[in-house]
Write a structure and sequence with these properties.
The complex is a heterodimer of chains A (about 375) and B (about 240).
Chain A (H helix, E strand, L loop, with lengths): L14 H28 L4 H32 L6 H20 L2 E3 L4 E2 H4 L1 H28 L8 H22 L4 E2 L11 E6 L2 E6 H23 L1 H11 L1 H6 L4 H27 L1 E2 L5 H14 L4 H22 L6 H15 L6 H8 L1
Antiparallel strand pairs in A: 1-2, 3-6, 4-5
Chain B lengths: L3 E10 L2 E11 L4 E6 L5 H9 L6 E6 L2 E2 L5 H7 L1 E4 L11 H8 L6 H14 L1 H5 L10 H13 L5 E5 L7 H16 L3 E6 L2 H7 L2 E6 L2 E7 H6 L1 H7 L4
Parallel strand pairs in B: 3-8, 3-9, 6-7, 7-8
Antiparallel strand pairs in B: 1-2, 1-4, 4-5, 9-10
The chains are: A mainly alpha (about 375), B alpha/beta (about 240).
């Protein structure tokens, strides 16, 4: 009997893979060295600093998560990146700002000179969010109708360009209408910025701000509500069906255009809430305020696995924490935190384009 | 008046003239079948009725109402549902969620529960796999799910696009037996099939489509006996 020769398996030399592994090894090596240096040699940052970094990372991360949801929802359904989402957030921030200003100048108790804002602080905040979210919802729906719907069925690059155009248009329109002036967000006294609970760590004071806790808690609530809507309601089921297969969804009696509109509405509402939170916590807004957070949240959505809801939430949190602790760990100036965020975008796209939670999605999609 | 009357429809994909004046009728309680080769326009006919690829010319009348320009989701509400070609179950949704999607247009909770029980009675396999994602089912089970999903809307007219595609012969028999049973319990069916032999033997009437035109029509028996049909679609025997 002749033996059948087993074919020789020759491993192809994959230059790309080698570059990938080299970058990974160098980066991880540097990271280990830095952590060792921080812990043993330099010891510049005490426990109080790390707590401060972690807290600000969580707050920032929760806002990123809320914005990232807007990207990922739209991507899940239309496979396009809504680059104007940051501007939707900016519009919400302005709407909330004007609401708070109006309430702040509406004197309800002339004797004490007290405005509605501080007479009814909780109601004022609710109103600011209601107006901010409504504005962004409407903006989101109109954006889809004007800039994206006519391009349905066009190659994927086309709506993307339209999105970038819409983003630039909205920035400039806001600059024209609201003037480029930076505006201080007017918070009610109970949410005065930079005040909060003081924790003593390492015999140093660490302030955990009211606005920060407020932002974090509200973000988590929004994420839970949204996740419940998508997983449990009839509308959520319709959204998931449209995301998977538009034609079949239509054959089930789902109004596909209606679902797409509602997706933009929900995504806009989340953006608007993020805008008001941004104003309340960070204090300053201007026509450009949505741009960088928008890009960061896009990074977060990609990091978590674009199109994947839990992924966007996780990606936002991870990005916030990495951004807050990264400069200290890497030993670079804090001004370079944006570089870290966008380096993550590049690294994710090189090493794991499907993102942290993306794999499950691609497997099940087959 | 027939339940569904399709008058002289012309459908285009861009510049491609896919349907050239197709006219068919489906009476209440019938099984009507549409046979023809690849690219003859069978699926296009169903998709035009469903409103997915609207007709450029012609008229579609369902229960006396003109639905030619009606949007797909409203057509489902009027009582026409489709189990599309290639089954197209929602892979990431569970079997139960897929069936719930079928009842999307309905609001009557009790009625939906009844329909669900009815579908589980016809396809007990689906009940066993209730909480599994649709994508994990076998081809035959997916076909059952696609038909069950279409039934969840309690259609007056059920459109079935190639239910036998890619199934083992034993499963094909099972699916066709189910189709006959559904018809006996009062569902009107418009069936598109490549498997002409089986399709013609269960239908009341049939149409033969060729390059977008109806070239022949008659009862199932007549078409089975027709020389041209035998040569072209049943294999020379």
């Amino acid at each position: 009997m002749e033996k059948t020769a087993s074919p020789k398996v020759r491993m192809p030399i994959n230059t790309y893979k080698i570059v990938q592994v080299t970058i990974a090894v160098l980066f991880i090596g540097y990271l280990i060295w830095r952590i060792y240096a921080l812990a043993v040699i330099e010891q510049v940052y005490g426990a109080d600093s790390w707590l401060r970094f972690a807290v600000s990372g969580l707050i920032l991360g929760s806002v990123y998560a809320v914005i990232a949801i807007g990207y990922t929802l739209v991507y899940g359904i239309l496979f396009m990146i809504n680059f104007a989402h940051g501007e939707i957030m900016m519009l919400g921030a302005y709407a909330g700002y004007f609401t708070l200003e109006a309430l702040g100048s509406w004197i309800v108790d002339p004797a004490a000179g007290q405005a509605f804002l501080n007479a009814n602080p909780v109601l004022s905040i609710v109103l600011a969010f209601a107006v901010g979210m409504t504005t962004s919802t409407i903006a989101g729906v109109f954006l889809e109708k004007i800039a994206y719907r006519p391009l349905r069925g066009a190659p994927r690059l086309v709506p993307l360009i339209s999105a970038i155009g819409a983003s630039i248009f909205l920035q400039n329109a806001a600059q024209l209408i609201f003037s480029p002036r930076r505006r201080d967000y007017l918070n009610p006294d109970i949410l005065t910025r930079n005040t909060g609970w003081t924790v003593v760590v390492n015999s140093k004071d660490v302030v955990i701000t009211y606005t920060g806790v407020f932002t974090f808690v509200l973000s988590i609530i929004l994420l839970i509500v949204l996740y419940t809507i998508v997983q449990r309601t009839r509308m959520g089921r319709a959204m998931r069906a449209v995301a998977e297969d538009k034609k079949t969804a239509a054959l089930m009696g789902i109004d596909v255009d209606g679902v797409i509109s509602r997706t933009f509405a929900i995504s806009g509402a989340m953006g608007g809430a993020a805008g008001v939170m941004w104003g309340i916590h960070n204090g300053i807004i201007y026509h450009y305020v949505g741009f960088i957070p928008g890009l960061k949240a896009f990074t977060a959505a990609v990091l978590g696995g674009i199109g994947n809801l839990p992924g966007a939430m996780l990606g936002g949190m991870v990005l916030g924490i990495v951004e807050a602790t990264g400069p200290a760990i890497l030993g670079i100036p804090f001004q370079l935190k944006d570089v870290i965020a966008f380096s993550i975008l590049v690294l994710v796209l090189i090493f794991r384009p499907s993102g942290i939670l993306g794999e499950v999605l691609t497997e099940e999609k087959v | 008046m027939a339940l569904l009357e399709v008058h002289n429809i012309n459908t285009f994909y861009g510049n491609i003239h896919a349907l050239r004046g197709v006219s068919i009728e489906v009476e209440e309680g019938e099984i009507v079948t549409l046979i023809g080769g690849n690219g003859a326009g069978k699926s296009t006919t169903l998709n035009t009725i469903s409103g997915i690829t609207p007709a450029r010319e012609g008229q579609i009348i369902f229960e006396g109402q003109d639905i030619t320009e009606t949007r797909p989701h409203e057509i489902v509400e009027k009582g026409i549902t489709q189990a599309p070609e290639g089954r197209r179950v929602f892979a990431r949704l569970t079997v139960r969620e897929n069936l719930d999607m079928g009842a999307y247009t309905r609001r009557d909770r009790d009625g939906i529960k009844e329909s669900l029980d009815a579908v589980y009675e016809i396809f007990p396999r689906l009940k066993e796999r209730e909480s599994q994602p649709g994508g994990t089912l076998s081809g035959g089970e997916q076909q059952m799910l696609a038909i069950g999903r279409a039934l969840m809307a309690q259609p007056r007219l059920l459109l079935l696009d190639e239910p036998s595609m890619g199934l083992a012969p034993i499963l094909v028999q099972e699916i066709f037996a189910t189709i006959e049973r559904l018809n006996e319990t009062g569902t009107t069916i418009l069936l598109v099939e490549q498997n002409a032999q089986v399709a013609l033997s269960i239908c009341n009437r049939g149409y033969v489509l060729q390059t977008g035109e109806i070239v022949l029509s008659g009862t199932g028996g007549e078409l089975l006996a027709n020389k041209m049909v035998r040569d072209a679609y049943l294999g020379a025997s």
